[in-house]
Design goal:
Layout lengths: L8 H4 L4 H10 L14 E6 L11 H14 L3 E6 L16 H14 L4 E6 L4 H10 L5 E5 L6 E3 L2 E3 L3 H11 L5 H11 L11 H11 L15 H20 L3 H4 L2 H14 L4 H13 L5 H8 L16 H7 L1 H8 L45 E3 L7 E4 L10 E9 L2 H7 L12 E4 L20 H5 L7 E3 L11 E6 L16 E5 L4 E4 L3 H10 L10 H9 L26
The chain binds FE2/S2 (inorganic) cluster (FES).
Length: 572
């Protein structure tokens, strides 16, 4: 039962030349007349790709969605959009998140569909799809890829990404052989799915669930668990109902839903990447979300999910312990219980019956893994528009630290010199990396967790304060200050830091200061000159010309907001 005529009738409902054209060519796939007779058309927006290994199984999952759509009386149509494989794309998948968002937006708007199921999982696919879908605002629901099974190697569980960083440092320290390192490769990624640590992919899937954008248990069910296929089936049924209810994405993307996501991000020990992605999605949805909201709402929230990189377990364990519903129940007092969801019911219904089956994996609120674990926003003369740090992944003693800077002017400079035995650094040194922000890299690469200099690794140093305008993989850890705004490439103060300058970090107080005279800083900034533009054509030029800073979600300035779902002209 629909409240108003289906949008798809403008494509498939006409007894005229245009209706003939839209239906006839679709019939070449073997669809009979009745599928075009007033059934809700459900687009399954699929980021499947063999070059995105984390999403490579999504055509199979789409079959589950289709079963549900057919069962509920809809007409499912699967369509591809760009896919972004985090581990496969150069210079960084983040460069293309906004391109995916444009692709998703235009593909949804251009076609005769009434509702959308977003199938994604690898880091940038979830936010890119939500950004695009928000700018069209049809009824929309998410099914995530699901995490890989736990990695296994030499009798131990190993985690995607997190153990790569650890093993790589162990090789550099001479504590692990190269043969052992290579041997871990196959054991780390042994099933379909996304990184099974609480990296960016599982963070975004967890936040999708906390925001009520999916059915419960979407985040943690392993990709290969038969229950994920059942979840896809139920999602297919639900999206047909959502079309009938005209329950649009904007009704679920409220400020309350974003605020719940910020709280949940702290409680799961989620990725710093969630900050830029939530800001970007909010920008599309017309929600006034700022960096300050992360401090205000998340800063005091404890981390309860004992998953790598903050803890020791993996997403499969999180699933068996009860998953997001059990976690949300623990933090219910900090959430908006009445926030809307795709189910049409308040979010509190998702945790009402939840149980915690392993209190070491999902810690009770009075026995957290880390107190006050939410992303902290750092401001001061070095980052006037903000930077972020993830306390749950940092070394507690380094969260308050003053030391001399050692500056790398570029990623190439860092790579060429980091292992120089004569690099003038000690464990007190603060490593500073420039030129890795949205415009500078371009694309704001995940290189902020730069390696510890080899000489120090061999002396047993495992963490140092590191500062950059880059991002960091959600699977990574360390006392790493990220997303410095404004970035060096646009003349932010980071651009004029010199080796030897003293820098003060006080994460609890939210302070990051370059300890030089105000006049000296002003003089250096006045002398600063931008680099010559590197790109004169194509998407990279469009991106560099229009990308906003990290505190605005690194979206393109002309993509803020939405254009709705109306297309006024026919194609013939
Ligand atoms: Fe795709 Fe981690 S690389 S989710």
């Amino acid at each position: 039962m629909t409240k108003k005529p289906l949008r798809s009738r403008h494509w498939y409902g006409g007894a005229d030349k245009d209706g003939f054209i839209h239906r006839s060519w679709m019939k070449n796939q073997g669809f009979p007349d009745q599928v075009f007779a007033d059934k809700p058309v459900i687009g399954i927006c699929n980021t499947w790709s063999e070059l995105t290994p984390c999403n490579a199984h999504l055509r199979t999952l789409a079959q589950g969605v289709k079963r549900g759509v057919w069962e509920a009386g809809g007409f499912p149509v699967e369509f591809p959009v760009s896919s972004l494989g985090e581990t496969q794309m150069r210079p960084t998948a983040m460069l293309f998140r906004n391109l995916l968002a444009m692709d998703v937006e235009e593909a949804i708007r251009a076609h005769g569909i009434d509702g959308v199921v977003l199938l994604g999982g690898c880091d940038k696919t979830t936010p890119g799809q939500l950004m695009g879908a928000a700018s069209v605002d049809l009824p929309t629901i998410v099914v995530s890829s699901g995490p890989m099974l736990n990695g296994k190697w030499r009798g131990k569980d190993i985690g995607s990404g997190t153990d790569v960083w650890k093993f790589s440092e162990a090789v550099r320290a001479g504590e692990m052989t190269l043969a052992q390192f290579m041997g871990a490769e196959s054991g780390m990624s042994r099933s379909a799915g996304v990184c099974m640590t609480m990296g960016t992919a599982s963070t975004m899937a967890s936040l999708v669930e906390a925001m009520g954008l999916s059915l419960p248990q979407n985040a943690a069910l392993p990709a290969v668990d038969a229950r994920r296929m059942a979840l896809a089936h139920l999602t297919g049924m639900r999206i047909v109902e959502m079309v009938g209810e005209d329950l649009r994405l904007s009704q679920v993307l409220t400020k309350k839903n974003f605020e719940n996501a910020i709280v949940a991000n702290a409680a799961v020990g989620g990725s710093t990447n969630a900050v830029v992605h939530l800001l970007a999605i909010a920008g599309r949805a017309g929600i006034d979300l700022t960096l300050n909201d992360f401090d205000r709402l998340g800063g005091h929230i404890p981390c309860l999910v004992n998953c790598m990189p903050s803890g020791e377990y993996l997403m499969e364990d999180f699933c068996y312990a009860g998953g997001m519903p059990a976690l949300l129940k623990q933090i219910a007092d900090h959430l908006h219980a009445d926030a809307p969801t795709v189910s049409g019911k308040p979010i509190s219904t998702q945790w009402a019956e939840a149980e915690n089956f392993n209190e070491d994996v999902i810690r009770p609120i009075d026995n957290p893994l880390v107190e006050a674990a939410g992303i902290r926003v750092l401001k001061g003369n070095l980052t006037p528009d903000g930077a972020v740090i993830k306390p749950s992944a940092a070394t507690p003693e380094l969260l308050t630290h003053t030391g001399p800077a050692h500056v790398f002017e570029s990623i190439e400079d860092m790579k060429a010199t980091i292992d120089d035995p004569d690099l003038p650094v000690t464990s007190d040194t603060i490593l500073v990396l420039k030129g890795c922000g949205p415009k500078g890299y371009p694309g704001m690469a995940e290189v902020g967790n730069m390696p510890i200099p080899r000489r120090l690794v061999q002396e047993g140093v495992r963490d140092m304060v590191r500062i950059s305008d880059a991002r960091m993989s959600g699977t990574a850890f360390g006392t790493v200050v990220l997303h410095a705004c404004p970035e060096a490439a646009v003349g932010g103060p980071l651009a004029v830091v010199k080796t030897g300058d003293q820098i003060k970090l006080d994460a609890a107080a939210g302070v990051l200061e370059l300890l030089i005279d105000e006049a000296e800083l002003a003089e250096r900034l006045a002398q600063w000159k931008p680099a010559e533009p590197e790109f004169d054509r194509g998407y990279a030029k469009l991106y560099v010309d229009h990308v906003m800073q990290a505190d605005r979600g690194a979206d393109l300035d002309f993509l803020i907001g939405g254009s709705g779902d109306v297309v006024r002209r026919e194609s013939h």
